[in-house]
Structure formats: C-alpha cells, structure tokens
Design a protein that fits this description.
By secondary structure, this protein is of the alpha/beta class. The chain contains 11 helices and 10 strands. It has one domain (about 1-305): Rossmann fold.
Length: about 300
C-alpha cells in the first residue's frame, strides 16, 4: 500500500492534468483520484513486474465503444513512464484501418457493409503483424506507424504518422475488438438487429467477419502478453456512452471545423456493425482476459478482477 501511495504522489499531477484535458464543462470525471489510486496504479505494478527489457511487453486493452479505452491507456502510459521509468508506446487498432480506397474495393468484392470501418476485416492485418514483428526484433529499427483520421474516414498523410525511434518496453494495443474470438456458426444464423435483418440477409457479411476473427485476428491476438477488458453492463449503456463521446467531440469541433460529427441516428446505426462481436465479448471475454475491469452504469470502475497472477 505504501508503494501505491508513493507512486500516487509522483503521478497525481500529470494524471489529473490529462483527465482535465478530456473533460468538458458539462462532463466532468468523478472519483478520479480513487480510479488512479485504487485501480490503475495496482494495474501498473502488475504490468511492471512482467516487463522484460529484452523485448516489448504487449498489453491488449479491450472494451466496447465509449468505455474509456483511450483515457485508461493514456493514464497507464503516464504511470508506467513517470514512476516505473519505462518506455511506453500506445496505439489503437483503429490506426490500422484499411484505406478508404481499399474498403471501397472490399465492399464491392465481398459485401457493401465492409465499407464501414470497425469490423474485423476492415483493418490491415499484414501491417499490424509487421509492426508486432519489427517491434520485437532484436535489431530494432526506427518505425513509421499509420494514424487514422476519423474526420475524413481515411489514413493521415505519412508525415503525420507515428515515429517510433526506439524500442518500447511496453506497447499498449487498444481497441474495441482486441482479443475477440469467433462465434459458433449456429449463432451466426440469428440476426441481432435491424441492420443485419435488412442488409445481411444472406449472412455474407457476418460470416466473412467471423472468418477473419477465426484465422487472421487469432494469429495477431495470440502475440499479446496479456489482455485487459473494460467491461460495461450491457450494449445500451455503450450506446449512451458513445453518444456522450460524440457530444464531447461536438464541443471540441467548435474549435476545429474539420471534425466530422455524427448525429444520434448515425451513431446508433454505426454501432450496429459492432453489436454482434461486442455482445459476444460480454459473454466470453471474462473467461479468458487476464484482468477484467468492471464498470458501473455511471462509467466508473467498480471492481478489478485479476485472473492471471
């Protein structure tokens, strides 16, 4: 406990400063000190013990839309950097989306719903595997890694890509479907929302997405050293949180006219392509994730369950 207090004293200022940058007048974080002290610091001690300086330790961080993956991973990075003096690189699976041109081609070749970014099959798996391989290489060479611009639904120009100059000790790889596993074929037959009912009557889209999880994404996720899951109670809470996220963007967009903001219908429609896998993760992820962070309906951490010591 004393260690945790010591750590809190060192990281408190930077963590609270970051949280403040994420808040809006109408939307303030509650119990922030408790979140840092009781949950995120013990989590960082757990990660700190596992780090081997010879090669990066890959932390998978999963959670449905709006669960707070970016905030959580950013705070973990601050604590690991500031107190543990580790080199940390955080990246989202979103940064590896296929280009708009590639998704247009995929949507014509396989199914129109694959134009919408998000589902497995819309990321550049080869690029991700190459990044994992190069980051683990004994002879680390400077890496340029893509960043995705959601405002234009396409990759940023190469001059805006991440520039990873030295080998990290920890890589936080976050994303809504990180660590997701395929579902059984018999459950694929049942439609779960109006979008599947009208746009995927022949089940081409969902079977394609499931196949991606079964092979390509399995190969990718098998390289993670641990998996942390931010677990919300249900899908309707995620919809509420995702709408809240969009409202925050709207406040920020007044300062930046280039940001493309979705209205309520757009958000709910967009989330339908995420629903099947998200609900599958609710059910199965707690069985195999290393750490489950349970969130209450007020968007706060309620408990943390450590499965792997």
């Amino acid at each position: 406990m004393q260690q945790f207090n010591l750590c809190f004293g060192k990281v408190k200022k930077d963590c609270l400063k970051f949280i403040k940058s994420q808040e809006t007048k109408a939307d303030k974080f509650k119990n922030k000190e408790r979140m840092i002290k009781s949950f995120l610091i013990p989590l960082c001690f757990w990660i700190g013990k596992k780090v081997d300086k010879k090669k990066p330790y890959f932390v998978g961080l999963a959670g449905g839309q709006g669960t707070g993956k970016t905030t959580t991973s950013s705070l973990i990075k601050i604590i690991l950097t500031k107190y543990f003096k580790l080199k940390v690189f955080r990246i989202s699976i979103d940064d590896f989306y296929k280009t708009r041109k590639e998704r247009i081609s995929l949507s014509k070749r396989v199914h129109p719903m694959l134009l919408t970014r998000g589902a497995p099959g819309t990321h550049d798996i080869k690029m991700m595997l190459s990044f994992f391989r190069k980051a683990k290489s004994k002879k680390f060479k400077r890496l340029k890694i893509p960043t995705f611009n959601k405002a234009i639904d396409d990759r940023f120009n190469k001059k805006h890509w991440y520039d990873l100059k030295e080998k990290p000790d920890v890589i936080i790889f976050e994303g809504w479907c990180v660590g997701a596993k395929p579902e059984k074929n018999n459950t694929l037959n049942k439609t779960i929302n109006s979008m599947e009912k009208t746009k995927d009557q022949k089940q081409i889209w969902r079977k394609y997405v499931n196949q991606q999880l079964k092979y390509k994404y399995k190969k990718l996720y098998s390289q993670l050293n641990c998996l942390i899951y931010l677990k919300a109670k249900n899908f309707s809470l995620l919809q509420k949180w995702r709408l809240k996220q969009e409202r925050k963007l709207l406040v920020k967009s007044k300062k930046n006219s280039k940001l493309k903001i979705m209205n309520k219908e757009d958000v709910l429609s967009f989330m339908k392509t995420y629903q099947r896998i998200t609900q599958n993760m609710f059910k199965n992820m707690p069985k195999y994730a290393s750490i489950i962070i349970n969130l209450n309906s007020n968007h706060q951490i309620k408990t943390a369950v450590y499965k792997n010591k």
